[in-house]
Amino acid sequence: MSACPCIRTLDLAYHYEEEIPALNGITLEIADNAFLAIVGQNGSGKTTLVKHFNGLLKPTAGHVWVYGVETRSVSVGQLARTVGYVFQNPDHQIFGATTREEVSFGPRNLGYGPEEVRARTEEALAAFELQPYAEMPPAILGYGLRRKVSLAAVYAMRPRVLILDEPTAGLDWRSANDLLQRVTALHQQGHTIIWVTHDMRLAAQYAPEMLVMHEGRILVHGPTREVFQQVEALQRAQITPPQVVQLSHRLSPWGLPADLLTVDEFCAVYLGLRRARR
Q1: 53 neighbors 63 (Cβ within 8 angstroms)
Q2: How many domains does the chain have?
Q3: Phi/psi at 61 (nearest 5 deg)?
Q4: How confident is the model at residue 17 (pLDDT cuts 50, 70, 90)?
Q5: Are 227 and 135 within one domain?
Q6: Can you say whether residue 13 is alpha, beta or left, with left for phi > 0 and alpha for psi between -120 and 50 degrees?
Q7: CA distance 47 to 138
Q8: Distance CA 212, CA 37 (A)
Q9: Average pLDDT of 249-278?
């Protein structure tokens, strides 16, 4: 565990109904500048967990700290300066009359002056290539563009931690990769990325760290390459690894590494082995 985590929970429990725990004793540390994918079946507790990180939910029992500040002691608005949350459905987030107004709302709401708001808005529009749509109502844009608008609106507040709840849902393969490449660039700039996803192929490709949820508990947490080796735990959580991961497992008796994550890795190793045997 990191000596200075950005998020820490201790015995976190949450109940939507008195007798039905949605989270049950979550103790977790997320390092500063981590890129963590949180996976699990519907109802496993993924979204419930991450909503505790920005104060949308408060623990029924236990504790949550963000950079050492307990979330019970601060408001959602105060946490928004540190933790940005991009909802699964962009239409649950977008309300501005224009894309520029949508993106500028967060910095204005945080109390920044006109010049700072303008600078942050232009930077966010540029980062997500939204300048051509700046004066258009975001509601009329396609789903992929609305997704970018919702992400740019949170990015404009420059939170240290960015939570993405199923950001690639409803996107085609190209759009999903484009979005995640931009998220990766944010991570490289120092942001902590917490990503809720059902897409194991994208998780394997982009997320260095993975956490598997099952019935409100953490089943496995560690480097993605190692998590995909936990076959019994993944079966228990009903998680199916990407096909290339499954293939590398099956071919490992013939000398292929069992922990390959992507097609590019598989091809590189396979060609290397063929050359070595000539």
Answers
A1: no
A2: 2
A3: -150, 160
A4: confident
A5: yes
A6: beta
A7: 25
A8: 9
A9: 85
